[in-house]
Amino acid sequence: MATMKRKWGMAIDLDKCTGCGACSIACMQENNLPMFTDDSDSPKRVTFLDLMRVTNDRDTDKKFGDVETAFIPKMCQQCEGNDPKNPKPPCVSVCPVVATDVGDDGVVSQIWSRCIGCRYCQASCPYEARVFNWWKPDYEGSFKEGLSPDVSVPSRGTVIKCTFCSHIWKRERDRMLAKGVKDINAVLYTPSCASACPTGAIIFGDLNDQASEVSRLAKDKRAFRLVHTIDDKPEEEKKRLMAIKHYPNPKVYYLSSKQWIKDMQKFK
Amino acid sequence: MKIDRKDFLKVAGGAVVGGAAGFVFSGAPFNAFQWIVEWTQDQYVPGSGAERYLQSICQACPNACTVSVRMIGERAVKIETSVGGGCPIGQNLIQQLYHPDRVAFPMERAGAKGKAKFTAQIGDAAWNTAVEKIAKKIGELRAANKPLSIAAINGAHAGVSGLLLDRLVKACGSPHVYTEPCVHGASSAAVRALYNKEGSLGYDFAGADYILSFSARLFEGWGMMADMHKNLLAWKKSGTRLVQIDAQCTRTASLATEWVPLPKAGTEAVLAMGIAHLLFKAGKRSNAANAAAWTQIVMNDYTPDRVAKVTGVPEATLKKIADALMRARRPIAVAGRGAKSVSSSTLEIAAIEGLNSMLGGGTFIETPPTLGAPRYDAAAAASIKNAKTFAGLDEFIKSKDAFDVVFINDADPVYRSVFGKELAKKLEQASLVVAFTTLINDTAAYADIVLPTVTSLELPSVDKKTVVAPRYKAMHAGDAIIAIAKKIAGVADSFPYARYSDAVAAAGKGGRAAGGAPTIPIALFEKYYNTISKKVDDTAFPLSLIPFEVPSIGDGAGLALPYTLKSIDEKVYSRNKLWVHMNPETAKKFGKCEGSRVDLESQRGEVGSVRVHLTKTVAPDTVAVPLGFGHRHYTAYGEDKGVNPKEIMCDDIDPVSGNADWWFTRIKLS
């Protein structure tokens, strides 16, 4: 794999997230997610962005009055593995039919119709970011009119996932091509969750571009990654561990000023 | 040239191989596989069309965000950007537009009331028939000199169509027009009592440097969500301190600079007066017209020790808040408990305004748009003059008076009012109930005539064009009301508008007015301390029940949209189980554990069953219950999910606002 032309990443400021749910609804609308009459069954529902409500109320030293509540919007973390030149997310290497891969923009792709439904990728995903269509996607009557032709409707028995709305990326790329711009580094886009966030808590951009806001935020001292404890290790130790073991190395960064949210990412 | 058998086979073989290679590399087999997959699985393929972006205005709240809508051909597929903030409700516009259960045509009741069985009146004449029928019935009542049996209930965000309905009913000679309570509705009665003005309380959030919120869940649906999101960012920038008083650790409490836990839910008014007491001692004086009388109550009844006893907030914390308020340059105290559905008594708003009157008054009056008084004919004028009126919706529902014609405009009071069952009985007895709605809800289920209204995307936008032409035979409620009014003799004169948009222009935008010095309604505070301490210490019902909301569902309106159900937390509602949140200490006391099945019982009755979720985010001896669930009729997506706690919530009617103060209810587990 050649060097990535783009390395799309995300930084989510949890201190600005009110948990309103606009990101989650925008994601479902953009990606034609199915509509069952009772989608409250959380382990089985098909959704790319999980708005997780978290509190520190399990801490034994906490009592009513000093607990806190926060929301963590969790989508595919777009892992790249240890080596950005040869990206190996945990889900990609297990796929027997190359239905999922990493493109030169760093996005972990998924081709709905190529998936044979073995669910290896779902089992290997450390973030439970992949979903399986247990039933044929349902859209009652006129709900079908709100479906976008950019995202195919998945079949029953296949795994689907968040692709950072890569169909928007392709749309923007084609638009630039039509204008004669062939350099994909010139193409900009925003996934649907980031553009829907009313407080601007979700920032999207190119992690290769050192001047981008997302790069700046990823280096912020409030930044952390979901259950990725290697980040706390000293640089030398980090290198040593990465040489002997695979790490998911996600491209989604979270920012929080609350220590308990960061502590939550570690096993106790 | 002679072609022998060998050559022939070579050429033929080459053609076959070449053809096969061409076929494979053309991509056709892959397309064929795709088709086979689609065909065998009966897979739906969304239609294509030219892509374009159109501007529309979201009508979900008065903030009226301009949204950009992505269109594929004539279909709206996505709400893209939103100028003005945006919120989850705006993202739901596509689902609202294309909801398969939308009322498509004017419908008439076909079964018993409350069963939601209707027959659609298809055809161009359907609207005329419906309008004629309604106008005829009103004409009969007016001729029989019974205009007082006409009533109307507007939704909280009915806007100008609500003003038109108000005008129609009043021009007929009936004063019975009521609005579902919301944050503005709750304070407008208080504004009348405190300032003798029309309008609701507005808060100068931009100018404040210290905000003390009394259980107002500012970022979870309170007021206008888009506005509050902007305030959150502005406060972070300016360093404005937000101090949230709440009996539950909501997201607003955690986003605030400081959360003041309120161990005894529902005692916000007492806390406000306790803080006022300390401010007075520190030298702050109220600018209220009756400051002396107010101060006397505060100084005599609300000493820090007495306040600490009722609220559970330690004296030291009270002192700390009072000190911070003294130091602040422009502090404001915010009243109105709750998120989208707000419940506050006039007493509580007055107590918090009393506090503001000592802090230099960060509040103002928001005057609503108005169409002015209608032209009353002699009969209507006389009828209105002698009519008995009710202060608010709940008082109206609870009254024994029977009503013959009831209009329901974009509202669901059977579901939202604590007197829903009583209202349902009233609607059963009425001879004509007319509901303007997009979806059949618990209230429309009792309608005799259902008139289909339009959603935001079908309304004319900034450039006077609609994004999507009104679907089916839907018409804006405002246009329908104008059509009805024009058919009634003596009422038509009050409607010089050809269309709804003319009325919007005539109503104007509303504005802001200074409040001035308030007059605190002292009479309300008599014996209040005793009443509330008795309620807090009620041993027969040892727990306090308080509500909480999921922002995308709000007070129930969002539940009909399938994507909202997908986004909610599994400890709110999951697989037919509604979860109530309870402190582990309380659960231990009552022998409950995570997942226990309980029924909640108040003086009014019982709801159940719900599951217990143990969390220290809720005060001990308090049960937090999600609002918005338990619809009986609200499409296949919204109905029969969980329970509606309003059925058991407190029904004490506030004498000034005429609405129940349901926020704080004493219950027991059964």
Explain what this protein looks like in three dimensions.
Chain A is an alpha+beta fold and 268 residues long. Chain A is built from 7 helices and 10 strands. In chain A, a hairpin with a 5-residue loop joins strand 4 and strand 5. Chain B has 670 residues and is α/β, with parallel strands linked by helices. A 7-stranded mixed sheet of chain B has the order 5-4-16-15-14-6-7, with helices on one face. Among the domains of chain B are: 36 residues; 157 residues, Dimethylsulfoxide Reductase, domain 2 (3-Layer(aba) Sandwich), CATH 3.40.228.10; 132 residues, Barwin-like endoglucanases (Beta Barrel). The mean pLDDT of chain B is 92. Chain B contains 24 helices and 24 strands.
Strands, helices and their partners?
The complex is a heterodimer of chains A (268) and B (670).
Chain A: E1 8-13, H1 22-30, E2 50-55, E3 69-74, E4 100-102, E5 108-110, H2 120-124, E6 130-132, E7 159-161, H3 166-178, H4 192-196, E8 202-206, H5 213-218, E9 223-224, H6 235-244, E10 252-255, H7 259-263
Parallel strand pairs in A: 1-10
Antiparallel strand pairs in A: 1-8, 2-3, 4-5, 6-7, 9-10
Chain B: H1 5-26, H2 28-40, E1 51-57, E2 66-72, E3 75-83, H3 88-91, H4 93-97, E4 107-109, E5 118-120, H5 126-143, E6 150-154, H6 160-172, E7 177-179, H7 183-195, E8 200-203, E9 210-214, H8 225-238, E10 241-246, H9 251-255, E11 258-261, H10 268-281, H11 291-301, H12 304-311, H13 315-327, E12 331-334, H14 346-358, E13 363-367, H15 378-386, H16 393-398, E14 405-409, H17 413-416, H18 420-429, E15 432-437, E16 449-452, H19 477-486, H20 500-507, E17 511-514, H21 528-536, E18 543-548, H22 562-567, E19 573-574, E20 577-582, H23 584-589, E21 597-602, E22 605-614, E23 622-626, H24 635-638, E24 665-669
Parallel strand pairs in B: 6-7, 6-14, 9-10, 9-12, 10-11, 14-15, 15-16, 18-23, 20-22
Antiparallel strand pairs in B: 1-2, 2-3, 4-5, 4-16, 8-13, 13-17, 18-24, 19-20, 20-23, 21-22, 21-24
